[in-house]
Design a protein that fits this description.
- The structure is a single chain.
- β2, α2 and β3 form a beta-alpha-beta unit.
- By secondary structure, the protein is of the alpha/beta class.
- It folds into two domains: about 220 residues, Spore Coat Polysaccharide Biosynthesis Protein SpsA, Chain A; about 35 residues, no CATH class.
- The protein contains ten helices and nine strands.
């Protein structure tokens, strides 16, 4: 096959992972691809690593830009892309080597579909030692209603699970004023305009569990409520109202669950014992030992 696939890799300050991500591109069994690496103003040695791969293989294309966020980086790459199909890959994630080949084979068999969504697993440091995913993907989820109303409640799709016809992005871009859920908005926009997806029931993508990820540092539903406002112009009044009510309900429920867990911890015997010991240590004027002793005492008490 002579079809060109454009692989888009936005990078910001994750040089320690970039080599592995680009190696997974280089190892693809389907060879007619270009990989567009957009350095979004990284202060680390992202440029050195990207240029190393650019010198190694002319299919890698590198560009530096000032920091404006992942959406801006992806949008710039979409403007540059020459491929008939688009494969996204964040710089800390990983593709199995048959991702492009199997996706192309399936999309050519089923001409009415313009998106292939494959399954995924998770990993921490070593892609060969992977873990069960945070959700289970299946073909029944790949429709507008599920993406709109069940995102984050029962599932979400890592962007590199998708394999897209480039024509889908003629009038769709990642929202550059959003700092979270920009990929959800793109999924919604694609399906709202008639995009059709097929599920490839095979693990072809790995999602890194990165402790420093901005996604883990924020409330999922709080960010999703903000994203909902952006979607207002794309949705009918009824769709927008239903989505708003669902997200607000989930947000308050998540807060109630957190309050309940905190209350349960505070009412536990080990917590109350620990507080009493901490007060005694304070009274004795040996606060410097508290940070060391307090966790140890709680651990012993809980056994």
């Amino acid at each position: 096959m002579k079809i060109l696939v454009s692989i888009i890799v936005p990078c910001f300050n994750q040089a320690q992972y970039l080599d592995a991500a680009l190696q997974s591109v280089f190892d693809q069994t389907y060879e007619n691809w270009e990989c567009i690496i957009i350095n979004d103003g990284s202060p680390d040695n992202t440029e050195y690593i990207a240029q190393k791969w650019e010198k190694k293989d002319s299919r890698f294309k590198y560009l530096y830009k000032t920091n404006e966020g992942v959406s801006s980086a992806r949008n710039l790459a979409l403007q540059m892309a020459r491929g008939e199909y688009i494969q996204f890959l964040d710089s800390d994630d990983y593709l199995y080597n048959e991702k492009l080949e199997l996706s192309l084979n399936l999309i050519n068999e089923c001409h009415e579909n313009d998106i292939i969504v494959s399954d995924f697993r998770m990993f921490v440091d070593n892609p060969k030692k992977n873990l069960d995913p945070y959700c289970s993907l299946n073909s029944e989820l790949l429709n507008f209603e599920s993406l709109l109303y069940s995102w984050n409640a029962t599932f979400s799709i890592p962007i590199h699970c998708g394999f897209f016809k480039a024509s889908l992005f003629q009038n769709i871009r990642f929202p550059e004023n959003m700092t979270a859920h920009e990929d959800w908005i793109v999924w919604i926009s694609i399906f709202k305009t008639g995009g059709k997806a097929l599920f490839l029931d095979k693990i072809l993508a790995l999602y890194r569990m990165n402790p420093s990820s901005r996604v883990k540092s924020k409330s999922l539903y709080e960010d999703q409520i903000k994203a909902c406002e952006y979607l207002k112009c794309y949705l009918s009044e009824q769709e927008f109202y239903k989505l708003s009510m669902l997200l607000i309900s989930r947000y308050y429920k998540s807060n109630d669950d957190l309050k309940y867990r905190l209350k349960a911890i505070k009412n536990s015997n080990s917590y109350q014992t620990g507080l009493m010991i901490k007060k005694i240590l304070n009274m004795l004027g040996i606060m410097k030992l508290t940070k060391t002793l307090f966790p140890v005492i709680l651990k012993l008490k809980s056994k």
